[in-house]
Specification:
The structure holds two protein chains of two kinds.
Chain A (H helix, E strand, L loop, with lengths): L6 H30 L20 H7 L2 H32 L6 H13 L2 H11 L5 H11 L12 H30 L2 H9 L4 H12 L1 H16 L3 H7 L10 H11 L3 H32 L1
Chain B lengths: L1 H35 L1 H22 L15 H16 L7 E7 L3 H14 L4 E7 L2 H14 L6 E5 L3 H6 L7 H7 L13 H4 L2 E2 L2 E2 L1 E3 L6 E5 H4 L2 H11 L9 H13 L11 E4 L8 H11 L17 H13 L6 H4 L3 H8 L3 E6 L2 H6 L10 E4 L4 E5 L2 E5 L2 E3 L3 E5 L6 H11 L2 H10 L8 H5 L4 H8 L1 H12 L1 E3 L6 H17 L4 H19 L1 H12 L4 H9 L4
Parallel strand pairs in B: 1-2, 1-3, 8-9, 13-15
Antiparallel strand pairs in B: 3-14, 4-5, 6-14, 7-9, 7-10, 11-12
Helix pairs in contact in B: 3-17, 4-18, 12-13, 12-22, 20-21, 22-23
Classes of the chains: A mainly alpha, B alpha/beta.
Chain lengths: ~300, ~550
């Protein structure tokens, strides 16, 4: 049996990782918290360590900032809509794909394909897709509406612009949910399903009473991960609508980017980021407690 | 027991090793910081080199001190080359020194041309380009440099819109001393055209930049449609006025309506729209609004209090014009990116449009469907009552505009300045401008001197060169005060919202005014007022006359 290495070696071996962790995560994070309580603007010609202390001003300003609150509401709505649809689509696709059929490998590759594309590429594709002269109007809607399809200007109305973002996100991220659901459903023991069939359970009963409960942890992980990602949505809003018309499709990330980079109001952007972080942490923690820990205690 | 002892020893060793490593780290870090500290290094190098080089010059190398006048280039470029030679002779610069320039990818071809020409005269001094893909990246990197003061570049080409921020952040070095010493040709017939030369380079009365570009808007139009005899007759019978280049926005609206209702087919096969003026969401929406607002005699801020003055009759009029034009513009004017306007005009799908000079370049390319029929003119104006007399005030926006700024943290600011004096001189600048796409002409001699003009006529078309010179003379700046991009960003968002129909003009104006007020207070009213007053003085004469008539000035 091999002896354990001396503890000093273990400590020393951990030092690089600790340095990396502190340098890349903890120090910048601490700096962000610190900046959120200052009033620092690089364009003011003052270094950040000389910036005046602002107390809670940035946070109280955020609570009165209608553009921030609107972006928060809009992003939340976006997350609820896209995650719900992506989950249903991903699960349905996975359910049908666990069966063996000819061309399954190619179908799997095609389904996963959008996930491989960079966000900005997807955004550009859908930006062109929803142009007045793009395929959405000229091919898909033309079949249904005829020439009237030409009169649909996707980025001119708040509602259609928002819908276009939702469609782009669903196209790219449904495969993510699909992959997780597919791996979960594939791992469910066939003997269990066969036993249920022998006992006369219907396909619907097998799905709701056996397969879905067994993959429940995976469902929760998929939904949490996807919701976290969707909450950070930036690329598609930036490229496709620029947050417009006006600010009607401006997401949280896009607004914070503008505050920090375009308006270089770094302290305020730090405060907004902290608020978002706290909101997300509360939601995720509650979700984890409700889904995992509550069950364990009972 | 033995385990405990071993554990104690290990911990002790660990602590000793950690402390040792910590001390070593601090020593290495301190040594590194001392060695890399920019100011100290620069000071030391300059002093040492100076002494050594002077000795060398006296004892052995006489040619180094002799400044031979370069042949075949104008005096501005010659002074720059001679300046470099002097710096080399004095040891302030050394052969092999490198000037590093941060710039956007679009100007790479221009700068590479400048470097190629520079190396013919001073091969000893290298120039290195740090190229960034997008315009906002340049702003971000420049502001990062202002914070870190790392000296990662010696000069940066920026949008003049950012000048207030770049200066106030401490990044831009004042260059009045270099102007006096080397004379970059800002007077007389070769000077960059005013007021553009002043408003893009001065901040609170001090010079911080060299003009490297001009970005004044002109009106581009389909000459074939505007001069068609049948259409002229038809228009006159319907509207009672001549179909010609519009003098005012009111006339342009009528013409745009007329052409849109004709349902003409463009050379591309698409529909012909009467007009296309920016109302897009990303950054260009403000340009159209601002142009009409300024021509109507609007002033952005009160010259005494710095209160926003956009929620006024002039602001409402600007929206009124844009909304009346909207039915005659393609919907993409509100939704697409800025490049869509170029695409539609080059395909012949719009009759009237306005954009940067590069639109004329694009329209005259062999592949452009309008290459033989694209015309250029000064933008239409607004009729204003000045002292009881109605006068059409015409102005032209100059959105963005690249200028060259020397960094306060440059290793050798003087040498860096001389490169840009060389690159923007009449002879060299002509070749630099005509090489790439995004930089455009700004010196008067390029428009008027037969030595230069044919080259620009070939690139832009002769009608454009005339129209552009007039436009430069009536051009007005972006909001070149601290927070300029932020002010304009808020305006853009609201202009776009009004044009998309999601916001009422009254709300848009009052919200923008409130936002502007907050921005002003954030930066300090007094400081902003000082910058605004200095900038307002550089607006074209007709605009200032309208301001005076309205009691704004």
């Amino acid at each position: 049996m091999r002896s354990k290495p001396p503890k000093v070696i273990v400590y020393l071996a951990n030092i690089p990782l600790n340095i990396l962790l502190y340098a890349t995560l903890i120090i910048p994070f601490a700096l962000m918290i610190y900046l959120a309580f200052l009033s620092w603007n690089p364009a003011a010609g003052v270094d950040w360590w000389q910036a005046p202390f602002a107390g809670l001003n940035n946070f109280s300003r955020a609570l009165q900032d209608s553009r921030f609150l609107a972006a928060l509401g809009r992003t939340t709505a976006f997350v609820i809509i896209v995650v719900s649809i992506e989950f249903v689509l991903g699960l349905v696709l996975a359910y049908f794909m666990i069966e063996e059929f000819k061309g399954k490998k190619i179908s799997l590759s095609l389904i996963i394909y959008p996930l491989m594309l960079p966000w900005v590429v997807v955004a550009l594709i859908f930006y062109l897709f929803f142009q007045d002269y793009g395929p959405m109007n000229n091919i898909f809607l033309k079949i249904i509406l005829g020439d009237a399809a030409q009169n649909i200007h996707w980025f001119l109305s708040s509602t259609t612009a928002f819908i276009s973002l939702v469609i782009a996100d669903i196209w790219q991220w449904t495969p993510f949910i699909f992959l997780i659901m597919y791996s979960g459903l594939s791992a469910v023991s066939k003997r269990l399903i066969e036993a249920a069939q022998v006992l006369g359970a219907s396909t619907r009963t097998i799905f709701w009473k056996i397969q879905l409960p067994l993959i429940r942890p995976l469902v929760l992980i998929a939904v949490v991960l996807r919701a976290l990602e969707a909450f950070k949505v930036f690329d598609i809003a930036y490229v496709m609508t620029g947050g417009g018309p006006g600010t009607s499709t401006e997401t949280l990330s896009l607004y914070i980017y503008r505050v920090a980079i375009e308006y270089h109001d770094i302290s305020y952007a730090a405060a907004l980021s902290l608020i978002v972080l706290v909101i997300l942490a509360i939601i995720i923690r509650t979700f984890i407690w409700y889904s995992f820990e509550r069950g364990v205690r009972t | 027991m033995s385990e405990k002892t071993e554990s104690k020893i290990s911990r002790r060793r660990f602590i000793s090793a950690s402390i040792g490593a910590g001390i070593l780290g601090i020593v290495v870090g301190a040594a590194g910081a001392w060695l890399l500290k920019p100011e100290v290094v620069a000071e030391k190098t300059v002093t040492t080199t100076f002494t050594r080089e002077v000795t060398k010059t006296v004892t052995a190398t006489a040619p180094v001190t002799v400044t031979t006048t370069p042949v075949g280039i104008d005096m501005v470029a010659q002074r720059a080359i001679n300046g470099v030679r002097d710096l080399l002779a004095k040891g302030v610069a050394k052969p092999g020194d490198t000037i590093r320039i941060l710039h956007v990818a679009g100007s790479r071809a221009n700068l590479e041309k400048a470097i190629e020409l520079w190396s013919e005269y001073v091969p000893e001094i290298k120039v290195e380009l740090i190229t960034l893909g997008q315009e906002p990246d340049v702003y971000t990197k420049a502001m990062s440099e202002a914070v870190t003061k790392a000296g990662t570049f010696d000069a940066v080409t920026i949008f003049s819109t950012w000048l207030g921020d770049i200066v106030e952040s401490g990044l831009a070095r004042p260059i009045d001393d270099f102007f006096s010493k080397y004379d970059p040709g800002y007077t007389g017939d070769i000077a960059p055209i005013e007021p553009l030369a002043s408003y893009t380079t001065l901040y609170k009365g001090k010079r911080y930049a060299l003009v490297f570009d001009s970005d004044v808007f002109t009106l581009s139009y389909r000459r074939d449609l505007l001069t068609d005899p049948k259409l002229k007759d038809q228009f006159k019978s319907e509207y009672g006025i001549e179909l010609k280049l519009p003098d005012t926005w009111e006339e342009l609206i009528k013409m745009a309506e007329f052409f849109t209702k004709l349902n003409l087919t463009a050379p591309s096969g698409g529909k012909v729209w009467g007009a296309y003026f920016y109302a897009e969401p990303r950054f260009a929406a403000y340009i159209t609004w601002l142009n009409i607002f300024i021509e109507a005699g609007g002033i952005l801020f009160d010259l005494k209090t710095m209160d926003p003055k956009i929620d006024t009759s002039e602001g409402r009029y600007a929206f009124d014009v844009m909304l009346r034009l909207k039915p005659y513009m393609p919907p993409e004017a509100v939704t697409a990116s800025w490049a869509d306007l170029y695409d539609k005009f080059v395909k012949g799908e719009t009759v009237f449009t306005a954009a940067w000079p590069s639109l004329s370049k694009e329209a005259h390319r062999p592949t452009a469907l309008v290459k033989d029929v694209a015309g250029s003119a000064v933008l239409p104006g607004v009729e204003v009552n000045i002292g009881g007399v109605k006068k059409v005030v015409r102005a032209a926006p100059n959105p963005v505009n690249w200028v060259a700024v020397i960094s306060n943290y440059a290793k050798n600011p003087e040498l860096t300045y001389l490169f840009f004096q060389f690159a923007t001189s009449p002879d060299i600048g002509k070749d630099v401008i005509l090489t790439g796409v995004i930089l455009d002409l700004f010196r008067r001699c390029w428009f008027t001197d037969p030595k230069y003009r044919p080259a620009f006529e070939e690139g832009y078309g002769s009608e454009f060169v005339d129209a552009y010179m007039k436009s430069l003379e009536i051009s007005f700046p972006d909001l070149l005060i601290r927070g300029g991009p932020e002010y304009l960003g808020k305006l853009t968002v609201n202009v776009n919202a009004v044009m998309a129909g999601t916001k009422d003009p009254e709300d848009a104006l009052s919200e923008t005014a409130a936002d502007w007020d907050s921005i002003t207070k954030k930066y300090g009213v007094d400081s902003q007022l000082e910058a605004w007053k200095a900038l307002a003085n550089l607006f074209p004469a007709d605009v200032k006359e309208a301001w005076k008539a309205k009691g704004y000035m």
